[in-house]
Amino acid sequence: MRWGLLAAALVASPVAAGVVYSAAAATGLAGFDPRGFSTDRLSRVLGEPAVWESLAWTVRTASLATLLASALAVLVAMTFRRGRGVDRLARTLAVLPLPVPHLVAATTAVLLLAQSGLLSRLGFAAGWLAGPADMPPLVYDRGGLGLVLTLTWKELPFLALVATTLLATRGAALEETARGLGAGPWDTFRLVTWPLLWRGLLPSIVAVFAFAAGSYEAAAMLAPSDPLALPLLTLERYTDPDLARRGDAFVLVLVGLMLTGAAVGLHEWVRYRTTELPG
Amino acid sequence: MSLAKASCGRSSTPQPRDLARAPWDSLASGARGTTVTWRMWRGDPSINAYVDRWVSPRVLQRYGINLNAVEGQGPEIVNQLQVEKEAGAGGTADLVWINGETFHQLRQADLLYGPWSGRLPHAAWVDSASPIISRDFEQDPAGYESPWGTVQFALIYDSARTPAPPRSYAELREWILAHPGRFTHDQAFAGITFLKQLMYALGGGVERFQGGFHEELYRTSSNRVWRWLEEVRPSLWRRGGSYPPGVAELHRLFANGEVDFTMSNNQNEVVTKVAQGIFPATARALLLGDGTIANAHFLGIPANAPNPAGAMVVADFLLSPEAQLEKARSTVWGDGTVLAVDRLPGPWARRFAELARDPRALSRDSLARYARPEVAPEYHERLARDWRSRIRRGGS
Amino acid sequence: MSSVLRAGRTAGLLCLGLSALLPMLLLAIWSVGDSWFYPALWPSRLTAESWRALLSGEGRLWAAAVTSMLLAAGTGAMACIVALPVGRALARLDGWRRHLGAALTFLPVAAPPVALATGLQFSFLSLGLGGRPIGVLLAHAVPAVAYVSLYFTGVFAGFDARVEEEARSLGASAGQTFWFITLPLLRRPLAEGFALGFLISWSQMPLTLLIGGGAVRTLPIEVFAFVEAGQDRIAATGALVLLVPALVALAAARLAASRTEVAAV
Amino acid sequence: MSTAALRIERLSAPFGSAPGLEDLSFEVQSGERFVLLGASGAGKTTLLRAIAGLAPAAARRMEVAGYDVAALPPERRDVVYLHQTPLLFPHLTVGRNVGFPLRVRKVPAAQAAKRVEEALSAVHLESFADRMPHTLSGGQRHRVALARAIIARPAVLLLDEPFASLDPSLRQEVREAVLTIQREYGPALVLVTHDLDEAGLLGDQVGVLLRRRLAQVDRPAQLFARPTSLEVARFLGMPNEVVGRIAEQGCFESVLGVLRVSRTIAPGPSVALFRPEAVRICERGFMAAPVVALRHRVHQTTAIVEVGGTRLEVALGGARPPAAHSLVQLSIDPDQLMIFPAP
Predict the structure, then answer these.
(1) I need a surface site. Which of A14, B10, B349, D190 has the fewest CB within 10 A?
(2) Are B168 and B40 found together in one domain?
(3) Residue D197: which H helix or E strand, with range?
(4) What's B14's domain CATH number?
(5) What chain C residue is nearest to D149 in terms of C-alpha separation?
(6) What is the pLDDT of residues C197-248, one digit of tens each?
């Protein structure tokens, strides 16, 4: 029993070390330019509207992608749930991008979604678009749609895998029971399938949100210059030519880790509520 | 800390203090059998090919040095050395490719070894009379870096799409206003250099900016830059609400006709990019009449370099007429030499003069006519930071 | 109604097929495309230059792929070795302790790589691990060990430890039990754990960048450098190489899964 | 002095964090079958696991074949513990499963093969050596597990409810296998069950584990006839319980009247427990009672009668089943009453 928590603490210790060092560096106790404890840097960086805009933009983009991917995952799982044949093929195709690195996804997204990318070229060839400017801006755009789509594409396989597994392992039996108890198809979906899916998916959804919010490569290649995605802002400050400003990055590291901590806490809390408690 | 030193240290390497006194020959023979790790920008296949397939085998054959070129540029180098110093860790690079503000920051933080560049045998042929080569962003290298090559900033346009390109910043402004959405600059080094030239043009010429950083001059002239940018902003690409992260992304926009201009710190880049099929064959370089910044790039040795002796030997080879000539070929790299060509012995002067010129490249005369020196690095740093907070943020 | 449904299913299948295969197709064309400008749908010339460079081992992609492969294999192995006891210990927790343990273990997985790398760079460099493959390996192991530990927690939750007791009771020592019983029974989870760790290292970028300091050149680092330099053809080639082990791992997992399905029937 | 195969003296073992077994002592001779009888949750499994070294325990003595094993790891105790359901190693063939104990003892391959063959034939599974466990039936799995347990010739074999999960016909098959194999290899056998019949059938000795203590250890006949405490008697499932008191003269006074008991029991409030056979319906008994219902059991039919407000289950004693609500005459054999001081 005790060993379990100790082992977990050991695994988490690098993050703890990162938090401790970042906190020290953000308060002038360590880092490039330690000058003794002071909260000046903390309050200055956290007082910048740009930082909050970055955070908000990152959260918004990651949330959108996560929601979109969740909806699609449920759709895929519901539409293609039979054992073999076309359904199996569809499920395999949905899971195929699972191990594709973010870097590859982002590289492809640029080639595909840019205003002069393949989609735009197809539109031009079809006569729908007169030039790159007619293509809606998806890449480097404040709306961040290109990044949202890329992250959605990256997250869908994992969520689809969880959703199809849920339906395959528990769905059929529960649905049959419900039908046997007199529920119609709609009631079965409303009262059995849907609650099963969303409750089962929720922890994965929170986890996927954390991945999306922290992704560096995709943001670096697809995000706009303003607001700057949080990981990009962090790295930009970390390599600022002004040595005195580099410590700012550690405040942002703390913000990023805090966001992660919140997501992870929520993730386990949801799992705890849905698996350990009755009802 | 001592553990880190022990694990990284190569005990056979002479310590820096001894190096300063050791005769060159014994220094070179001492470096035999060692490895030199060279941190540099690795993004261009032409430059990589020169380093990996031309320089490396020769360095190995002649000096018995194993050259290991690794990725890392400007801010990354500073950051890496800074953290290494803070952590008290042994160094991981022997030679770094730097200039301008990177050199400034490294010197400020005392992260460079030196002075050493005067000890290189080939240093005697360096064109020290040229202000572009003898100064680095108005800084005196003071022996802490050795010049390696020269480049000059140029705009790049497609002669098929834009037969009559603007020839000055004033004309460029008119052109941007007349062609909405067709111009932008990147957020990184080239883009900031573009803004710096704009600052010279609006601030009364580069001469006023020489002689160190002046806050007042910077404020008034940079304000003109922001006004200029705000004025053209609605006509910039994406209405000035977003900017490509780096020059590569700008190149991609240019090549596919999303914008009509791109830019480069290296006037010869258009030649290699056309050869690589990245630019259309009709792409050309363009110098604005207000003058474009020419600068030299250098090689430094980190203060914590495990193998400074080897690094010096490599830097010396890179300075040799042979290596400089190969690098200057436009089919190889097209990087300008830092040697005083007319002072070179024997056939070398002739060989440099005979370098085949690519028709797309700019003539040496016009390059020289429009070349402007770099000024104090603070200008670059301030422009970059203020552009981010004033223009990049709060667009659209 | 059913014809509408069928049309919807067909459209869905088509979309999934396109979304899975189009990116790979696009990368494949880009890796051989020369002078491919808007609005051309097809490159004006084809060249196998980047592939030739890759396969001849001359270019940097090959060396980077080898480095990546070794690092990823090392990370996968290390993740398995560490995660095995950790996952086992975690699986024995119950109630809120189990969830606290899982949350702690999940942190390194979910932490933004940039934040993790930035926070860890100082410690790694102080330990003399900066810029060295061993340092990068350890850095990759941080999220990999955590991820594989979570995976093994699930495995051990379903693992019948009484089999081990039976073996001990039949005269096997702890070592023999592990070697003859536990290990063979966990062969598939171990292979999958290795693949997980492998893939985490294989696609890792920010940690490699900051801890490796540019000196450890993995495939993602090179691909990113080529993307940043606008060398799309080489980048696309590297991206395809990055895909290979990922797809092989997925295919192997699927194959194994379908084989156990058959065996279970 | 003969050495017991297993000697346990004053063993205590915790149940997780709750208080556990306390102060247990017993001894099993080689070739002897010791049955541990107890309700579920009494700690039977914990005791077996403690003996096998799989659960923590403290004991003044824990000897196997004369050697103290308390400090030894499970594999060096010369004791084999078999889980309730047969746990065959799923990745090994039947032959390799059975050969496992020899493999870990580094017995030469040729010799091991011969012994595996013997062990398999002892459980009538000669041709199954190359099968995988998941292709076997439930009974076959049990027999493989037995063969595997016995092949190392342990001094003590611990069986945890080996027949509980089996249906009656299979139970017979496996029980036979256990008896055969024990006769052939002769280890001491400790078997846990909650089935009284099974205990009587298999045990040379039966230990009753009640409330974390060994309440009684005896030969089965003795145990069933003379439980030494009310607790044990109740556990043995006496259907009838009558409250009364022992008067000075050794008489038990209750609704059954005044009965003379031969054993000496301290005077005071007492409880009498007895089986249906102790009270019989007969032609001329000493009291009459109305029949409330009939109860049909596997081996006999009994009648429920009401005596002084208490319902008793009584044997028919060869008589024809009486009609409901009829009055019957009852006779009592006082020697079959088990009388204990009231708690």
Answers:
(1) B10
(2) no
(3) helix D196-202
(4) 3.40.190.10
(5) C170
(6) 999 999 898 899 888 877 788 999 888 888 888 888 888 998 999 988 888 8
pLDDT recorded at residue C265: 29
Amino acid at D249: Q
CA distance B295 to B132: 6
Chain position carrying tokens 């100064």: B135
In chain B, residues with a C-beta closer than 8 Å to the C-beta of A224 are 241-242
B67 and B142 in a single domain? The answer is yes
Nearest to C38 among A86, A121, A249 (CB): A121
Q: What's the pLDDT tens digit per position in A139-198?
A: 888 889 999 999 999 999 999 988 988 888 777 777 877 777 777 788 888 888 888 888
Instruction: Identify the CA nearest to A221 among candidates C25, C227, C220.
Output: C227
Name the domain count of chain D. Answer: 2
Strands (E), chain D: 6-15, 18-28, 33-38, 58-64, 67-68, 79-82, 156-160, 188-193, 205-210, 213-218, 240-246, 251-254, 257-260, 268-274, 279-282, 287-296, 301-307, 310-315, 327-332, 338-341
**How many domains does chain A fold into?**
1
Q: How far apart are CA B243 and CA A227, in angstroms?
A: 11
Residue B356 lies in a domain: yes
- Categorize the per-residue pLDDT at D288 as very low, low, confident or very high, splitting at 50, 70 and 90: confident
Q: Which residue has the tokens 């019983």?
A: C181
The arrangement of strands across the sheet holding D188-193 comes to D79-82, D156-160, D188-193, D33-38, D205-210, D213-218
* Judgement on whether residues D205 and D263 belong to the same structural domain of the protein: no
**Amino acid letter, B248:** A
In a domain, B396, yes or no: no
Query: What is the three-class DSSP state of D1?
Result: coil
Q: Is residue D1 part of a domain?
A: no
> For residue A83, is pLDDT > 80?
no
Of the candidates D41, D37, D48, D45, the residue with the CA atom closest to the CA atom of residue D8: D48
Judgement on whether residues D221 and D244 belong to the same structural domain of the protein: no
| DSSP assignments along D112-155, one per residue | HHHHHHHHHHHTT-GGGTTS-GGGS-HHHHHHHHHHHHHTT--S
Whether the link from the prior residue into C39 is cis, omega within 30° of 0, is yes
CATH label of the domain that carries residue A211: 1.10.3720.10
Whether residue B112 is found in the same domain as residue B48: yes
Residue D257 has which token pair? 């009247």
B56 touches A at CB < 8 Å: no
Distance CA A206, CA A274 (A): 14
Domain presence at residue A151: yes
Domain match, D158 and D12 both: yes
Residue D134, Cβ density class (10 Å: 0-12 exposed, 13-18 middle, ≥19 buried):
exposed
Domain stops at, among D225, D260, D280 = D225
List the one residue out of C133, C146, C131 whose CA is nearest residue C71: C133
Q: Select from A33, A66, A107, A118 the residue whose CB has the most chain C CBs within 10 Å, as the one to mutate to test that interface.
A: A107
Query: How would you classify the pairing of strands D205-210 and D33-38?
Result: parallel
